[in-house]
Amino acid sequence: MFKKICIIGCGLIGSSIARAIKKNKLANKVVSSNRSNNINKKVIKLNIADEASSDTKKIVKGSDLIIIATPLSSYKNVVLKIKSSIKHGAILTDVGSVKKKAILLIEKNIPKKVSWISSHPIAGTEDSGPESGFSELFKNRWCILTPSKQSKNKDIKLLEKFWKKLGCRVDIMDAKQHDYILSITSHMPHLVAYNIVNTTLKIKKKKDRNIVKYSAGGLRDFTRIAASNPIMWRDIFIQNKENTSKMIDEFISNLKDLKKAIKNKNEKKLEKIFTKTKKIRKEIIEAGQDISKPDFGRK
Amino acid sequence: MFKKICIIGCGLIGSSIARAIKKNKLANKVVSSNRSNNINKKVIKLNIADEASSDTKKIVKGSDLIIIATPLSSYKNVVLKIKSSIKHGAILTDVGSVKKKAILLIEKNIPKKVSWISSHPIAGTEDSGPESGFSELFKNRWCILTPSKQSKNKDIKLLEKFWKKLGCRVDIMDAKQHDYILSITSHMPHLVAYNIVNTTLKIKKKKDRNIVKYSAGGLRDFTRIAASNPIMWRDIFIQNKENTSKMIDEFISNLKDLKKAIKNKNEKKLEKIFTKTKKIRKEIIEAGQDISKPDFGRK
């Protein structure tokens, strides 16, 4: 499908893509660039890529597909490194969770003859690093493509085919829509998980009590999400700050409503809300985005 | 261990206890009482109990251990039904998630010669009903005992042994402590999950968009918790409303702090908080309250 694919940033997502490329034989050669030489060594040792180097400018040369899989705050650095060595006619994509600012930044800096099409495979676990990736990560997950002004139709089709080979279902969306929807389905849940775990830690410190051991009643689920990559999420919230702020306001306003209903012992209202929220679970399972097995079989 | 155990309310928790009693041979006879005759039939058909009837007053007779496993709002009804037929010298317990009000209510209504010791096994899944229970539910989970004024030491020891046979680790705590700690580790996480799913539903309705399909980025985890039994949780929040209100206020205040940090692009602060929250995950796994497998193997 491609001659040479270069993955910049071989963490959970980058290494999962590399593994899936190799497994599905989608390129003759997969190379990777990471700032840390330890990571580059690991990538080679684990046979994730054929070559790995911290010299991004050099290793990107001749690639017909370049995938940026670093935290959003590194994009500027990456783009400045590759802009003079990227092949004309190549496809450039990324896997970032916020689109608007990233797309503008790259449009401004990349040669016109490069097809820049942003991607967002909605998949992940709470683990980070090249050792945590696996080739099946994208199976049955949605990947949203957001073509920039600088993208050719035939390349959008090719990239779509690429993600489908990795197991994804593909939707095309503009940056504004993407950043709004993801602030609801992904960014806000993460922020809330971070906040509830942070609130717990503050109380734990103040009261000096071991409350963690009683976490099986709900808290433990949030700690999984709140164990996600700190740098990646810091960048996401800041790059999508307008939508995140709006969502925080809506969330707080609804939470205050619930508080009032609890205070007034408004049984009917609470039951109605909690019954509605139960239904959406079924929709998610039917959409193939989770399994119905209770507790994810961790019992 | 017991001659006859009566379980009032054979849902997820009640039926899991019954199954574990049978599996571990902890009683000669297990009976169950449920308001709905359909449930009573199901309980017999699934071989969860030896007898089942909606006549609670009658079926409770002669039991040396009675376990109330209904939603909290049914306690008053249950107690009024059993108060004249409960055996003197029997142990009465429950499995409720809030203690203070329930303990007072039962102390007021139950004959003095009954040993009333409240229990809270911190275990569960998002499923409800007798078909969803399983005997291993309590394995390695904490069970908190809150003895009332009306409990004998030897009975506390016996009940402790009972929960340990079911696989629990047991702690003893007063009602005030219990209700405070559980508001942090269980009630608040559930309320927040209900609230984020409710917020999503409101936006979905307003915008008429299918956003559920993109839920693999975080939201789906919350929908699992927000699929828990609506009646049970309505009762929990109302019975623990003072602690819940306090926790909501702390949660909102911390969330506003995060909003400010995001608005000001305070990278250092965000990174510091998200790094702290990552650590607690390790503690929970080390405490045996979750497994380290990422994504609970649902990939």
CATH superfamily (homologous) name of the largest domain in chain A: NAD(P)-binding Rossmann-like Domain
CA radius of gyration of chain A: 21 Å
Cα shape of chain A: globular
CATH architectural arrangement of the largest domain in chain A: 3-Layer(aba) Sandwich
Question: Can you walk through the features of this model?
Answer:
Two copies of one chain form a homodimer. With 299 residues, the first copy, chain A, is of the alpha/beta class. Chain A folds into two domains: 2-173, NAD(P)-binding Rossmann-like Domain (Rossmann fold), CATH 3.40.50; 177-297, 6-phosphogluconate dehydrogenase C-terminal fold (Orthogonal Bundle). The first copy, chain A, is 50% helix and 14% strand. Chain A contains eleven helices and eight strands. The first copy, chain A, has helices at residues 12-23, 37-45, 56-59, 75-82, 100-109, 153-165, 175-207, 219-225, 230-239, 241-263, 267-286, and strands at 2-8, 27-33, 51-53, 65-68, 91-94, 115-121, 142-147, 169-172. In chain A, strands 3-2-1-4-5-6-7-8 form an eight-stranded mixed beta sheet, sandwiched between helices. In chain A, helix 1 links the parallel strand 1 (2-8) and strand 2. Chains A and B meet through helix 7, helix 8, helix 9, helix 10 and helix 11 of A and helix 7, helix 8, helix 9, helix 10 and helix 11 of B.
